Amino acid sequence: MKSDTKRGIWRMVHAERAALTDDLARLDPGQWDAPSLCEGWTVRDVAAHLVDAARTTRIGFVAGLVRARFDFDRQNARGVERERGASPQETLERLRRVASRTTTPPAPLDTRLVEEVVHGEDIRRAVGLVHSYPQEAVVRALRLQARTPASFGGAKELMARVRLTATDVDLSIGEGPDVTGPALSLLLAVSGRRAALDELGGPGLPVLAATS
Q1: Which of 24, 96, 98, 151 could bond to 54 as cystine, CB 3.0-4.6 Å?
Q2: pLDDT band for position 106 (50/70/90)?
């Protein structure tokens, strides 16, 4: 990946972290405990996960995975517990402190955009907040999810059965009957967020819905 592209991705990541921190600062205590779109996690859990993700290094990721006996869910749960802190304000302050970090696990850099956009919506939709994401960030995240195997949280196998066609940007991925809608909604749906299915249409939607 070219250095200017990497810098551009990190600028988007850092901007999204800062924007989410600003939104979280507006929440009342009860909203931190609201169920997020990420099944089994509250808003505060998702924020803690984002702290953990921002702190993760390549070596640290591998070491943590070994300690979790190669169970990604267990590794993520441990990260959430580690980074929650004693209060929502502590979680928020930890997120603020890692906003400009550029460490990453051994994965494509666009995974940082998937984290910030998808988990950003996990939080915002749970508490009624609306945010406008950079189109490039959403498109890069969606393209990555479309080529990432389901075993790693993506939708590669699904792309042989449906075609995702965005209605707000020139983007079409996959084969088969169309699923149409905003790129952000497509990204959320292929990332397992059923709340976005109502924003989509097309003859391929039942296939997508069956996998979300």
Answers
A1: 98
A2: confident
pLDDT in tens, 131-141: 999 999 999 99
Identify the bridge partners of residue 73 per DSSP, sorted by sequence position: none
pTM: 0.93
Packing angle between helix 111-127 and helix 183-190, nearest 10 degrees?
100
CB 147 within 8 A of CB 164: no
Look at residues 151, 154, 131, 53 and name the one whose alpha carbon lies nearest to residue 95. 53
Q: Is 78 exposed, middle or buried (0-12, 13-18, 19+ CB in 10 A)?
A: middle
Report the alpha-carbon angle 183-184-189, nearest 5: 95
Angle at 47 between CA 134 and CA 26, to 5 degrees: 75
CA distance 205 to 209: 6
Q: Structure tokens of 66? A: 């070994």
Give me the phi and psi of 181, to 5 degrees please. 160, 180
Using the Cα atoms of residue 89, residue 24, residue 111 and residue 210 in order, give the sign of their dihedral.
positive
Instruction: Quickly state the pLDDT bin for 162 (edges 50, 70, 90).
Output: very high
